[in-house]
C-alpha cells in the first residue's frame, strides 16, 4: 500500500482508514462541485467516523433504526451496561431483559435473527460493496440503509452512499437548492456524480445537516 490515502483492497476498492483519506475525498468533491466547498466552509473538518467491525456494530445499527440519535444512544448505553452486545448474550437473554433496556418487540426479533445469522465478518472485508450489502440484507432487520452504514463506517468503503437516509436527503435539498427533498431514486442519480468518493459526500452532507438544522443526522 503506497499510503493511507491510497489504501485499496482487491475486489473491495478504496478503503478509508484515516483523516487524510477523508480530506482527500473532500478536496476531490470540492473541486468537482463548489457547493461541497461551500458546505465544508460551514462544517469545518469532517469526522473520520470509522467504527469497529462485527456483530455489535450491526446490532447498534438495528437499535438506531426509526428512533432519534438521543434515544438510540440511551438504549445502546443500557445494552452495554447490561452486557447485551454479543450474539450469545442476545440468544440467552429473556424478552423481558431485552425490553428492559429499551428494545421493542420487533427489534428483539431482529437482534435474535442477527445472533442466529452467524455472519462471517472477516469475509466481508474482501468482497465488492454490492455483495456486502446483498449479504447483510438477508438477515431480518437489516435493510439496505443499515447495510450501507456498516459498509461505510465499519468496512471503510469509500464509494458507498445511504440514498434513503432522510438527513442526507434534507441536507441535499438545502445545499443544492432543490424545490423539495429528493427521494431515494433522485438521490441515487445525484450521487452518481460523487463517485468514487460517495462516502465522503455523505459525511459532508451529514455534517452540513448538523450545522443547518442544529440536529445530528447519524450516530
Report mean pLDDT, rounded to a whole number.
92
Distance between the termini: 30 Å
Return the CATH class of the largest domain: Mainly Alpha
What is the CATH topology assignment of the largest domain?
Endonuclease III, domain 1
What is the H level of CATH, i.e. the homologous superfamily of the largest domain? Hypothetical protein, domain 2
What Rg, in angstroms, do the CA atoms define? 18 Å
Continuous helix count: 13
Largest β sheet strand count, sense and barrel closure: 2 strands, antiparallel
Note the quaternary state here: single chain
CATH A-level architecture of the largest domain = Orthogonal Bundle
What spatial form do the alpha-carbon principal axes imply?
Answer: globular
Q: Work out the number of β strands.
A: 2
Helix content: 55-70%
What number of domains?
Answer: 2
